[in-house]
Design a protein that fits this description.
Largest sheet: 2 strands, parallel
Radius of gyration: 21 Å
Distance between the termini: 24 Å
Strand content: 5-15%
Number of strands: 8
Order of helices and strands: EHHHHHHEHHEEHHEEHEHHHEH
Helix content: 55-70%
Structural class: mainly alpha
Number of helices: 15
Number of domains: 1
Length: 357
């Protein structure tokens, strides 16, 4: 991996916005981690997922209801990932480390691996957002061109159409393809994984085996392989589409900027916090339903600047950060509605599909 350096000598913007955020928590006597609003989500979503799973196995229902239940189960699992796993893996679910570690294992329950994801997301993506050549989130293979510095191919003319098909299989590819590639290669895109401890090796394999047991062996026993395969694919199509679209709306839209690095080291002219603001966008910030379901990931600017603060605080932080951006003459990218953000993503992918430099 080439060395990337940000101009953090003065970091005036981040110092100012951080002081304002610290004052908010002190004046209101609030903890930065989760509160009852976050814990209530876990109390609702986790039992909902378990109940739906059991009902799919032993319930008496028609095949149309089975399809709806599979969609609902997939959507519930995604909401658990957004609302529980994401905060926990960032260390913002609780002030107790062991609680964060335990709740972060919900990623393993969903089929992936928390250890690898933390390196991919917390370290690489949050540090080098939208930098082609390092950020694994915009390195989704040759069929998708997500920034102008990536190689163009004729098939990209149609990526704004077929990308949703790729999104729908993304979680299967993630859990049974890229997870194993990263594990055996000890590399995430261009970044090496320095060490995987014995405990993480154990968790990786035990989690994968248990996933096969609970998501394949047990359902096949109760339902038969045809009904299981149908439900399993519907489950992952739901998860893949929702996860992919939500994460794409944060960075791969028309308003955000991109950078690139090749083999040589690179110096980014701005401080890290300014880079994060320019490469990130919020969406549907006033839609409380969207905010609840996606675990505050529609407040991506707030999340990227303060990933160790729980998402339940992001609506309040957004007002502070927006004022700071105005003070420093920085853009505060946001789309008022979910629909506008999706349209922007589609337009950008269509634009990147044209043959131009």
């Amino acid at each position: 991996m080439p060395k990337i350096t940000f101009n953090n000598r003065d970091h005036l913007f981040f110092r100012s916005v951080k002081n304002s955020v610290e004052a908010y928590f002190q004046n209101n006597r609030l903890k930065k981690t989760g509160n009852w609003k976050l814990y209530l989500k876990a109390i609702i979503l986790i039992p909902m997922g378990i109940t739906t799973y059991i009902w799919l196995l032993v319930g008496d229902y028609s095949w149309p209801v089975g399809i709806l239940l599979s969609v609902f189960f997939g959507f519930t699992l995604v909401c658990i990932a957004f609302n529980v796993m994401h905060d926990a893996c960032h260390g913002s679910y609780s002030g107790k480390k062991w609680v964060n570690e335990f709740m972060g294992l919900s990623m393993n329950v969903l089929g992936s691996n928390a250890f690898i994801w933390k390196i991919k997301h917390n370290i690489i993506h949050h540090t080098y957002t939208n930098i082609d050549g390092v950020d694994d989130d915009i390195a989704n293979g040759p069929l998708l061109r997500q920034c102008i510095t990536q190689k163009w191919m004729p098939i990209h003319r149609y990526q704004f159409i077929y990308m949703f098909l790729l999104y729908s299989v993304s979680t299967i590819a993630w859990m049974w393809g890229t997870d194993f590639y990263k594990y055996f290669a000890k590399k995430i895109h261009t970044t090496a994984i320095n060490k995987i401890g014995a405990g993480q090796h154990f968790l990786f394999w035990v989690s994968k085996v248990l996933y096969v047991f609970f998501y394949a062996v047990v359902p096949v026993y109760f339902l038969g392989w045809q009904a299981w395969l149908t439900g399993f694919l519907i489950l992952h199509v739901t998860m893949g589409l929702v996860l992919s679209v939500v994460f794409q709306l944060a960075h791969v839209v028309e308003k955000t900027s991109f950078d690139a690095v090749a083999k040589n080291n690179k110096i980014i002219a701005s401080e890290w916090a300014v880079h994060e603001v320019r490469t990130t966008a919020d969406f549907a910030p006033r839609n409380k339903v969207v905010s609840w379901l996606v675990g505050g990931l529609n407040f991506q600017i707030e999340h990227h600047l303060f990933p160790h603060i729980s998402h339940v605080h992001y609506p309040a932080l957004s007002r502070i950060i927006r004022k700071q951006c105005e003070l420093f003459g920085l853009p505060y990218h946001y789309y008022p509605t979910l629909r506008q953000a999706i349209y922007s993503h589609v337009r950008l992918m269509k634009q990147l599909g044209r043959n131009y430099k």
